[in-house]
Amino acid sequence: MSRTESHDIKSTAGVPMPPVATARFAIGDVVRHRMFDFRGVIFDVDPVFANDEEWYQAIPEAIRPAKDQPFYHLLAENADSSYVAYVSQQNLLHDESDEPVDHPAIAGLFSDLVDGRYTLRPQHRH
């Protein structure tokens, strides 16, 4: 199939490809939220928003992030608990504390914390 034919198939399917931003963070990075008091370890990355619309609409419009940016899955912690968070790139900063993240799932996915980044265990690498 030629490039033109391939392009025609995509365009007739009516599925436009969304623009994709470059991810600033990687799996294992320790990050903190720009506005809220929590931090975490990235364990997965979506190139664009991939959660459900109800979750997205629950974010107050004044602070709702754009969908066409990377979103990160975090093993997160705050002063009260540990949990999984889903956060847009625009709302994350590198955590400069060099402190480990206290989340019970970290030991199953990651090993050492070195220079602000956890090392993914070999069995979880692609």
Question: What is the gist of this entry?
Answer:
This protein is α+β, with helices and mostly antiparallel strands and 126 residues long.
Please, could you describe this protein's structure?
There is one protein chain. This protein is an alpha+beta fold and 126 residues long. 16% of the residues lie in helices and 30% in strands. The protein is built from 3 helices and 7 strands. The strands form 2 sheets. Strands 4-3-2-1-5 form a 5-stranded antiparallel sheet, with no helix packed on it. A two-stranded antiparallel sheet has the order 6-7. The radius of gyration is 18 Å and the shape is globular. The two termini are 30 Å apart.
Helix content: 10-25%
Average of the residue pLDDT scores: 88
Radius of gyration: 18 Å
Topology order in helix (H) and strand (E) letters: HEEHEEEHEE
| Apparent shape | globular
**Biggest sheet, open or closed, and with what strands and sense?**
5 strands, antiparallel
Please tally the β strands and state the result: 7
Number of helices: 3
Give the N-terminus to C-terminus distance in angstroms: 30 Å
Percent of residues in β-strands: 25-35%
Indicate the structural class: alpha+beta
Poorly predicted sequence stretches spanning 5 or more consecutive residues: 1-12
Spatial strand order of the main sheet:
4-3-2-1-5
